[in-house]
Amino acid sequence: MKSQDYLPEFVYGGMDGIVTTFAVVAGAAGAGLDSSVVIILGFANLIADGFSMSVGSYLANRSERHNYDKYRRLEYLEVDHNPEEGREEVRQIFIKKGLKGKALDLVVKAITSDRDVWVDTMMRDELNMTPGDRSPLSKAVVTFVSFITVGLVPMVVYLMDFLVGFSYNLFVVSSMLTGMAFLGVGLMKSYVGEQPLWRGAAETFGLGVGAAVLAYWVGAVLERMF
């Protein structure tokens, strides 16, 4: 299994992580909170939301795998106990693909002569179901790691300020770092979705800006109220 096979999980976990964390940072900036509060809120959000997202990913993928296994068992039962109907279903599949006559008969005979190939064909071409090639646990782990690592970007400058001091405007520097991270994740998103590179980058960057503006405004309003 290649590392790039997990790129979709990394992209979507990272996107959620950075959007969520930057919203916390922007809200705290709008409310005028200091670095220690931003760090506490940010880390609490990272761990809780990252864990929640990874658990959701695990449960969804495990359910999908169980569903595939259930229908595969049903197809084996049909092949074993009602083979004539199964052969006719295979025939109809390849008729729709344009085969006919002797070629059709040869294909149907070849496929139905092997029980596993027969079931694989029914799963793929009749039910449009394919087996997942990655475990639900590995997907969940990648999602959690990407959520945490990419989600840390908006807080890096606040951590530096807390540990050693930082003389520049924290929110401005955090926004710049986050913007670059949004563009990077957007480019990876375009690659995964086979879209033009500019589109994924623009969509992700726009989403981040929108979340930040809304969070900053809410933080500023609440700070004035209380």
Could you walk me through the main structural features you see in this protein, from its secondary elements to its overall organization?
The protein is mainly alpha-helical. 82% of the residues lie in helices and 0% in strands. The protein contains 9 helices and no strands. It has helices at residues 7-30, 35-81, 83-96, 101-112, 115-126, 136-151, 156-163, 170-193, 197-225. Helix 2 runs antiparallel to helix 7. The chain is elongated.
Secondary-structure element order, as H and E?
A: HHHHHHHHH
Global geometry: elongated
Give me the number of helical elements.
Answer: 9
Instruction: Characterize the biggest β-sheet.
Output: none
Assembly category? single chain
**Overall mean pLDDT score?**
84
Radius of gyration: 25 Å
Report the strand count. Answer: 0
What percent of residues are in strands?
A: under 5%
What is the distance, rounded to the nearest whole angstrom, between the alpha carbons of the first and last residues? 53 Å
- Low-confidence blocks of residues: none
Percent of residues in helical segments? over 70%
Describe the structure using short key phrases.
226 residues, mainly alpha, 9 helices
How would you concisely characterize the structure shown here?
The chain has 226 residues and is mainly α.
